[in-house]
Design brief:
This protein has 127 residues and is mainly alpha-helical. It has one domain: Orthogonal Bundle (Arc Repressor Mutant, subunit A). It has helices at 3-6, 11-24, 36-43, 47-59, 83-118; strands spanning 63-66, 70-73. Strands 1-2 form a two-stranded antiparallel ribbon. The chain is elongated and about 65 Å long. The N and C termini lie far apart (63 Å).
């Protein structure tokens, strides 16, 4: 059995999934996100995990909570980026950070290989 299939998503991953859905237009301004309890049950996670994901999206300015009603995709003022645009920018930024991280990891490997090939340099003197 594949452990990836049984692993439950964390709050960051749930927020990313919803952010992608906002960017794709699945959820638009004024749309209500799934209720926390039902969504938690569907994903097999705790209610707190879903609430933490929604909190992250609120902090990013993509959604707003309406007491006693639910969590909704924000409608923006004129001149502000729409939640869809903001979500797409965040998704693009995450992809760029991942790409840069991969490049940096490759560079670190190359530096280690060069240092190993050069051999120890401490204590050497020109005589």
């Amino acid at each position: 059995m594949d452990s990836q299939q049984t692993r439950k998503p964390n709050a960051r991953e749930i927020a990313a999934r919803i952010r992608d859905e906002i960017a794709a237009g699945t959820f638009g301004p004024g749309d209500r996100l799934p209720g926390g309890r039902a969504y938690a049950k569907k994903l097999g996670v705790s209610l707190m995990t879903v609430q933490n994901a929604y909190t992250q999206l609120r902090e990013e300015g993509l959604v707003e909570g309406v007491s006693g009603s639910g969590t909704y995709v924000r409608d923006t003022a004129p001149g502000e980026p729409t939640p869809r645009e903001a979500a797409q920018r965040l998704t693009d930024l995450q992809a760029e950070v991942a790409r840069i991280s991969t490049v940096l990891a490759g560079l670190a490997d190359r530096v280690q290989q060069l240092e190993a090939a050069a051999g120890p340099t401490e204590g050497k003197t020109d005589t």
